[in-house]
Write a structure and sequence with these properties.
This protein has about 260 residues and is α/β, with parallel strands linked by helices. It is about 30% helix and about 20% strand. The protein contains seven helices and twelve strands. The radius of gyration is 19 Å and the shape is globular. About 40% of the residues are buried.
Length: about 260
């Protein structure tokens, strides 16, 4: 009897691991092709949540070596816990060792940090060459990036972000919470965001009960979607928020061929 109980317990542990933990360790590399006229390749890493991440930086360094992206973009949520700031620094330092230019915006969890702690995070990122975009344009020759700060945290200012943009250039928007797209008046070429983790626990009814804004309520919470003023892509994120598990939803980074 004891043997059967132990076998059953072992089977349950394996099942729980395969269903809830393995998806956080088994990285999916999405390849997305969309012609913007920029002629670049961008690696998007979203929702690092360093306190939960199970994808080592060395795995991303291997990917960067293979794909040779023009840019790495970090679309928010590094951490909300000050004791983990040094771990964020180490992770970003490893990515910076590849020499690929990095751009970033903050997410709602970053804005949970105290002002002095957020300033410390900013200093760490800038020390590693990360260009943080706070509602502003980053001109890059014949195309441009626009970084819009987090909508959930009420830090977004799309009008300010677009104020110095060149409307004749391909425009790639970086933001965290894609709900901001409903409040952008200007046209853009392409927008990258994260925030929803692809639902993390992929249960069809989940976003009917979790209030995450108008987009997920309409079934828009991952992948590509054509909006009225441009194309958007919502990453499923590389890490987890809340419970450190995923169900029917693997961790993701995305290669955008633009």
């Amino acid at each position: 009897m004891i043997v059967y109980i132990l076998i059953g317990l072992a089977a349950l542990i394996v099942l729980v691991y395969c269903l809830l933990i393995l998806p956080t360790q088994w990285l999916k590399v999405e390849q997305v092709h969309y012609k913007t006229g920029a002629g670049i390749k961008v690696l998007q890493i979203s929702d690092i949540h360093i306190e939960h991440i199970r994808i080592p930086a060395r795995r991303l360094i291997q990917l960067i070596g293979t794909e040779r992206p023009s840019y790495i973009v970090l679309t928010g949520d590094f951490t909300e816990l000050a004791p983990y700031l040094s771990k964020v620094h180490r992770y970003i330092k490893e990515l910076a060792s590849t020499g690929v230019p990095m751009l970033a915006v903050y997410g709602n969890h970053d804005h949970h940090l105290a002002p002095a702690e957020l300033q410390q995070l900013t200093k760490m990122l800038e020390e590693e060459g990360v260009r943080l975009l706070h509602n502003e344009v980053y001109a890059a020759g014949h195309y441009q990036f626009i970084g819009i700060d987090d909508w959930t945290s009420k830090k977004s200012d799309p009008d300010k972000a677009f104020a110095k943009a060149d409307p004749t250039k391909p425009t790639i928007v970086l933001t965290h919470d894609p709900n901001v797209v409903l409040h952008i008046k200007q046209r853009f070429t392409y927008l990258m965001a994260g925030h929803f983790h692809g639902m993390q626990f992929h249960l069809p009814f989940l976003f009917k009960y979790l209030r995450k804004g108008a987009l997920p309520a309409a079934g828009i919470y991952k992948g590509m979607h054509q909006m009225d003023n441009g194309m958007i892509y919502i990453s499923k994120g590389i890490s987890q928020t809340g419970t450190n598990a995923r169900f029917l939803m693997r961790s993701e980074v995305t290669i955008h061929h633009l």
